[in-house]
Amino acid sequence: MKKVITDRYVRDVYKSGSRKIEIGSEDILTPLAKDTINDLRMSVVEPAKLVSRTDAGVVAIGSDHTGFKLKEILKNTLQNMGIKIIDVGTFGEDSCDYPDFAVKVANKVITGKAEFGIMLDATGIPSAITANKIPGIRAATCYNEFTAWSARNHNNANLMVLGAKTIGEESAKSILNKWMNTKFEGGRHQNRLDKITMIEKQFSKNT
Predict the structure, then answer these.
(1) Which of 23, 97, 164, 203 is most exposed by smallest CB count within 10 Å?
(2) Same domain for 97 and 32?
(3) Which residue range is the domain that position 119 belongs to?
(4) Local confidence band at 64 (pLDDT 50, 70, 90 cut-offs)
(5) Domain count, the chain
(6) Which of 154, 168, 181, 200 is catalytic?
(7) Tens-digit pLDDT profile for residues 134-177
(8) Are residues 105 and 23 in the same domain?
(9) What's 136's DSSP letter?
(10) Catalytic annotation on 154?
(11) Does the N-terminal peptide bond of residue 130 adopt cis geometry, omega within 30 degrees of 0?
């Protein structure tokens, strides 16, 4: 029988003295539960696969120093999906400024060199603010699978921003997977995006 293994379940197992989580082939292990397993240094028997293949071609990815480690992890996830990557930096953990890299990611998207952009900073907020200054960019800060789905399905977002200090590694992977495998619905949502574009053009003329 299929079951959902949650954070609470993992903690209950840990309290019982066991350091192993056993799951069946059809069981669902939530991203938060995976992060808790990592935090508690527990092991998983027969873990479920997280990512699947997509038809997306090229993704531009960048980060500031706070997001560097998570960027490297997500690069591996993208490669396992069969996605080509353009890494615009940063390439280490020395302190740097997020606008420099948010603009680089956005530029790859707006010029058509990448289908999507992914940017990581501490909270996922400042890089989204930066990228959204560029006409044609629709950057969305995503903090769970639903926000990633909605950003793509409803808003046709073309740049995802993640907060490396606000989500765990497994949560980030699941958010990325949902983003990459969700398509824009169009219809009434396109009408709303057209209004956003009109506002963008209006204020561009006034500056």
Answers:
(1) 203
(2) no
(3) 58-180
(4) very high
(5) 2
(6) 154
(7) 999 999 999 999 999 999 999 999 999 999 999 999 999 999 99
(8) no
(9) T
(10) yes
(11) no
